[in-house]
Structure formats: structure tokens, C-alpha cells
Amino acid sequence: MRNYFSSDFKLGILGGGQLGKMMLYETRKFDIHTHVLDPSPEAPCRISCNYFEQGDLMDYDTVINFGRKVDVLTFEIEGVNTDALRQLEKEGIKTWPSADTLDKIQNKAIQKKFYKEKDIPTAEFEIFDNKEELLIAVEKGTLSLPFVWKSATGGYDGKGVAVIKTREDLDQITKGECIAESLVPFKNELAVIVARNPSGEIRTYPVVEMEFHPTANQVEYVICPARIEEKVAENARKLAEKVSEAFNHVGLLAVEMFQTENDEILVNEVAPRPHNSGHYSIEASFTNQFEQQVRAILDLPLGNTESKVGGIMVNLVGDKDYEGEVVYENIEKILRMDGVTPHIYGKKLTRPFRKMGHVTIVNKDLAEARRVAEEVKNSIKVISK
Amino acid sequence: MRNYFSSDFKLGILGGGQLGKMMLYETRKFDIHTHVLDPSPEAPCRISCNYFEQGDLMDYDTVINFGRKVDVLTFEIEGVNTDALRQLEKEGIKTWPSADTLDKIQNKAIQKKFYKEKDIPTAEFEIFDNKEELLIAVEKGTLSLPFVWKSATGGYDGKGVAVIKTREDLDQITKGECIAESLVPFKNELAVIVARNPSGEIRTYPVVEMEFHPTANQVEYVICPARIEEKVAENARKLAEKVSEAFNHVGLLAVEMFQTENDEILVNEVAPRPHNSGHYSIEASFTNQFEQQVRAILDLPLGNTESKVGGIMVNLVGDKDYEGEVVYENIEKILRMDGVTPHIYGKKLTRPFRKMGHVTIVNKDLAEARRVAEEVKNSIKVISK
After folding, report:
1. Contact A66/A49 with Cβ under 8 angstroms?
2. Choice between A154 and A63, residue whose per-residue pLDDT is larger
3. Are residues B158 and B238 in the same domain?
4. Is residue A108 part of a domain?
5. Which residues in chain A (325-364) have CB-CB distances under 8 A to chain B?
6. How far is A189 from chain B (nearest CA, A)?
7. Domain end among A161, A181, A201
8. Among A190, A378, B54, B356, which residue has the fewest nearby CB atoms (within 10 Å)?
9. From the CA of B348, how many Å to the nearest CA of chain A?
10. Which chain B residue's Cα is nearest to A23?
11. B111 found inside a domain
12. Are B139 and B164 in contact (CB under 8 A)?
């Protein structure tokens, strides 16, 4: 086997944000040599990688030249130039996940068609080449309100997605290719992270549950394990495995799902990388998702995905009323709470709703963790000087 | 309170070895700005600190100039210039642990006298200014064999310590100040890590047990929790607390102890920093020792010291028959075992018995962890190309 540990082997990472930063804790732990490419000179990955390069992830030549310096190439964000990845694969540089998988995922229309082909249950949908076609369908009545609009490309953190209930809601739709998805009434939003290595070894993490704010339509807590029936959890993990194998995926795949009112599981969408819904694993799991990603893409044996303790994750987003140099108000207060670990991503400036960090709450008793999580949520505030 | 998180606050660390490297995972997690001073250009801390300086930790001016650039100064190794620390304290730079504590600990003769003063149980001892005086005492018969010889200064990783059973054994004794300690027959070697912050908040970690090789006199496993009676464990934790308070210590203090055949607890020696006996905490504890050290020296609330799961640590030392560029033989094999995490410190060259890393084995069932730990020990080998 290739020797990765304290050797001259080089792992390249496209993207130097918080996901890359957390992956670097693991490459440092294993003393694996890393190169990182990111457009920002203040990327959180800048320190603690062995070599940092500033550059555009969508620029063919930049990615090619960066990739040729490494032995295995991966990414922490989907927005990378897949033509460059494909060329690097031709040149014998292992790129995991593959350009082929990424192409299928980058475009939501292609992703949805892929699910149909592979008999993967997903909400009914219709594809439109542009906004005009969609509006015509609404006029004709072949597409009836309400529905969920999703831009085929460029959607991220709630952008490029909207629930269309009224004609007025149609105004916010952007021009390009999109899908209209039927609105499924669901009990729960669930997610399962699947790890798969090139040898085909596959493991799923326990099902996590997104708990939403009672009124505001916003995830407040990611809870592991999900408070659902064992049978439903089994089905969700089986389905996630099926999705990973359908993509012939290598690395982590985060599969977001709906549990419908009659306990059907529908795949919503996937992310081919470590995922926000897996952050709890750093403190709660035997093998956290970032170490698992390193194991998977290097074709090392996969680690135990089960949990040591119950885990809950709360995102730290910039307060809506503040912009400027960040201050984490009451962080000492939450450090006093049991089993609480803040992760500060290292972004110097806060903006309304910007992802600045997250907090993990662990406890042998999940209900107690949930209670503490609420205290955390009510205490800490991301403001500016 | 001072704002440490994504702020202009600067933490200085004297020493850039593996203990510093593991502490930097925590400063990165909290986005605390760090400066590191180390004599080696290849120090494991070099990357992932914000600013690295190469220099001599025992040189007064080097330490002064480094220290003046930071707000709080700490160390990951005892061998630093305490006169410089004392001067920096005068200048208002917080140095934790204090120069005063470090002076008492750097010299084992002073350390032992301190225990006597403070009624801290420790093995009987006699102090000698030099080797000659000790030899005279042996001649006169006022000092009788067997005894444990310890050099007052410079002892490290078994160096500067010897059990003197015969006249021949006296040859290995070095010239300088030393102590002769009575040989205590003990059941167990135990250790307790105590954390204390400037506000006086104090917490002890569970007692760990050093399991020795049946024949070779060498620690094979550090086991948490120690397999001893609850009452004995309580006494050990109480005694460790007393030691920390006696030193008026700030930061972590690792207290190594003997459990005598009649269940007395005697203090052997202490280390005023994160310690090998606490490495298990990264995977097993709610708050690992490195995060706890950061919390303690910054006067943040201390974290929960209890364990999520049972933990066992095995040191990775260079095989006695190899010297050169390191190779970790069978590391994939141990990655296949349940709950196993290797930590590779990043030293490029191995030497016989050099500390190259460690492996943590965690499991909800400590006996199972112990079984896996033995498999790990029998599988992995630190060799050279």
C-alpha cells in the first residue's frame, strides 16, 4: 500500500473553507502532507496546510496546475472546474469524488433525472429550460401551485430554492434552468452520511434529524440519533447506501431526505463531501466525518460510524442586525455548560446569517443534550464590535 | 472579559513539539492567534500556529523578545528560561504556569523538599550536592542499597533515573546534585491530571493506570479509568488536587503517583503541562487535556473531565533496530480495528525508542479496549525505509 503517513505523498484539497479546516485537523493527526487551493487569501485553511495557493476553483488552468502537484485530489466545495478534474483523472491523478459524480450532482435537474433512472424515491418534479417555460406551464395550468422551485445550478445555503404558493412568489424565480418539485408534506427532514472507499467498502452514519424552529422555517438543531422509529432509521440508512452505490461514489456523501407522513423516505438532495449535518461527529462519533473522508479517499479501512454519546449541533450564524468585526457574545457562558464545544471558523467579519461557526453539545442522555442545546441557542450571539 | 476568539489576542507557546501540536488543534478550533518558539526548524508546531520563531528556549533574550510579542505565555516543555519568564511577569505578560511553580518543579530536590513542607506524602529521600557525597554516604553505610537515584535536574523520558541495587549500578550515576529515594514496593503506578485556572476553579481527570510489560520494566498501556477500588481513586484525585493547590498552580498539572501495597498514595513527581498520561482524553473525554489547558491558562470556565468511553493509550516509539526515514508498518491493519486512532507526530526520522506518536483505543467496554490495545501493540511497528 502507498505510505501516506509522514511520507512524501501529497493530498490536494480544492477549497479552503471551514470544511477543509476541519479536515486538516485529521491530516495533521496522521501527518499527511496537504496542498490547498482557495480564492481567498484569508481562507480558514491557510495555516495548517503544508502548501497554500490562492486561485480560482472554477478556472481550468489554475485547477490543472494545482492538481498536477499532488497525488490525490479532493474538494470541500462543489463549485470546482470538473473539466479540469476529468483531465487530471486522465493524467493518472486520483480525484475523489470523481468528476463524473460531481457533474451529476452540480446540476439539480440531472441529479433528479438520475434518481428516476435508478429507482431512488424522490419528490415528483418537472424540468424547465428557463423561467419563461415555467411561467407558460403555470399559465396553461399544466403546472399548478403550490410547488417548490429549485434553480438547476448555483443553489447554496437556501439560495436558489423557494416555495411558490402564490403568483407573487413567482417574481423571485431566477431566469435559468430549473425544476418544479411537488410539495411533499413531511414529518421529518433527515440526513445520512455515507462513506465509501475505492475498494467498495461502505459505511453509513446514524440518521440525524433536523429540528426546525416552530415558527421561522429554519433548522435550529441537528440531532443524532434522530428521534424516529428504528425501522424508519434502517430504511433511511439502506436508501442512503443505495444512493452512494448508484453514484459509484468515493468519499463522503451526505444524503438529505424527507420522512413523509406515511413514513416513506424520499431523497431530497445530496452533497459529495463532509456536511454540516455531520459536524456533531467530531465530538460524538468513534470516527468523525473528516477523518472518515480522509480514510475513504485514500482507500484506507473505514472507521466505526457509531456514536459514543448523543450529539446535537447548533449553527453559529451572524446576527441579522450586525455587520463588521465579529464578537462572540456570551461564549464564556456556554463554555460553562456541560459537554459544549464551540467551533469558531475564523472569519474575521460577520454579516447577517453568515455561517461563522457551530456548537456541538454531547451527553450520554440525548434529552439532556437537547435541553443544553436550547440554553446554548438562547445564550450565544454572533455580533460585531 | 478579554475576547480571545477571532480577535487580536495572542497566545505564546514555548516549545513546538507534539504537545504543542496537539494544543494547536484546540487554538485553531477556537480561532485563537498563536506564536510558537522552538529550536528546530522542523518542529511539529511549525505549521498551524499563526507565527513561528526558531530559537533557544533556554536563552534569556530569545525568550524575552518572543514573550513581549504576546498577551499570555505558556510552555509545552519544562526546559525554558525561568528568569525570562519572571521578567515577563514583571512586565505584565501573564505567564502560566508561573516561573515560581516551574522553578520548584524543574529541580527534583526542591520538588521533594516542597512535598515535605506541604505534608504531601512522597517516598523517603535524601539529597546530595554531588555524586561524591552520595558515594561517601554509601561507604559510611548511612545510605543503604537498594535505592532509586534521581538527578536533580535534566531527567527526562527515563534519563536521569536509575534503581541502584548493587555497587556496580553506582557507575551509571552522573556527577551533579541528586536525590536517593527509598524503593517503595507498589501495586500500581497511577496518574491524575489536575486543571486549575487563575480564578481558582479546579477539576481533576479520572485516575489513569500505567500497565507495565510483565518482564521488561516499561509502560505498555495507559488505561482510563484505572482498574482500582473507587476509594483509592477518590484518594488519588483528592491528593492530586492538594498538590495543585500547594503549588498554587495555573494550567494542567500531571501528578504521577504510587499506590503502595497497603493502598497508601505517594506522589512520585509532577509535570506542569499536558502529559502523555492524558493523551487518551482526545478521544475518550468530554474535554480533552489540550482544550482544558487552553481554558485554564486563559481563565475560561473549565470543561467536564469525565469520560465518554473507556480509553487506552499505547505509545509509538521507534523500533530498537531501526534508524532513518520513518515508516509505520501495519498502520492500515490497526485502522481496521474498532475505535483505534493513531496520532503521528510528524518526526521524519526514527531512532531506537524515539517517541514518534501514540495510538488511542476507545470502547464502551474497557476490557474490550484492552484486548484491542494488545492487538495494536502486536501489529504496528515503527521502522525505517
Report:
1. no
2. A63
3. no
4. no
5. 326-328, 331-332, 335-336, 338-339, 341-348, 362, 364
6. 28
7. A181
8. A378
9. 6
10. B25
11. no
12. no
Q: Sorting pLDDT into bands at 50, 70 and 90, what band is A159?
A: confident
Domain CATH code at residue A58? 3.40.50.20
Q: Which residues of B fall within a CB distance of 8 Å from A332?
A: 1, 300-301
pLDDT category of residue A156 using cuts at 50, 70 and 90: low
Asked if residue B315 belongs to a known ligand binding site, the reply is no
Per the structure, how many domains does chain A have?
Answer: 3
Dihedral class, residue A97 (left if φ above 0, else alpha if ψ from -120 to 50, else beta): beta
Domain at B249, CATH number: 3.30.470.20
- Please check whether residues A208 and A135 belong to one and the same domain: no
User: Which residues in chain B have Cβ-Cβ distances shorter than 8 Å to A335?
Assistant: 295, 300-301, 303
First to last CA, chain B: 52
Chain B CB contacts of A21 under 8 Å are: 28
Asked whether residue B293 falls in the same domain as residue B345, the answer is yes
B175 and B197 co-located in one domain: no
> What was the pLDDT predicted at B60?
98
Q: A2 touching B, CB under 8 A? A: no
Q: What is the pLDDT of residue A218?
A: 78
A29 located within any domain: yes
Q: Which domain holds residue A62?
A: 10-95
Res A45: pLDDT: 94
Q: State how far residue B366 is from chain A, nearest Cα, in angstroms.
A: 13
Residue B331 phi/psi, 5-degree rounding, is -65, -35
User: Does A29 sit within 8 Å of B343, measured CB to CB?
Assistant: yes
Entry pTM = 0.96
Chain A residues inside the 8 Å CB shell of B21: 28
Report yes or no for ipTM above 0.90: yes
pLDDT per residue over B333-379, tens digit each? 999 999 999 999 999 999 999 999 999 999 999 999 999 999 999 99
Cα separation, A78 vs A84, in Å, equals 13
pLDDT tens column, A354-374:
999 999 999 999 999 999 999
Nearest to A8 by CA among A75, A86, A69: A69
Q: Count how many residues are written for chain B.
A: 385
Q: What does chain A come to in residues?
A: 385
Q: In this predicted structure, what is the pLDDT of residue A347?
A: 93
Confidence of residue B214 (pLDDT cuts 50, 70, 90): confident
Strands A208-212 and A178-182: unpaired
CATH code of the domain covering residue A144: 3.30.1490.20
Classify residue A163: in a domain, yes or no.
yes
DSSP helix, strand, coil percent of chain B (3-state; round to 5): 30, 30, 40
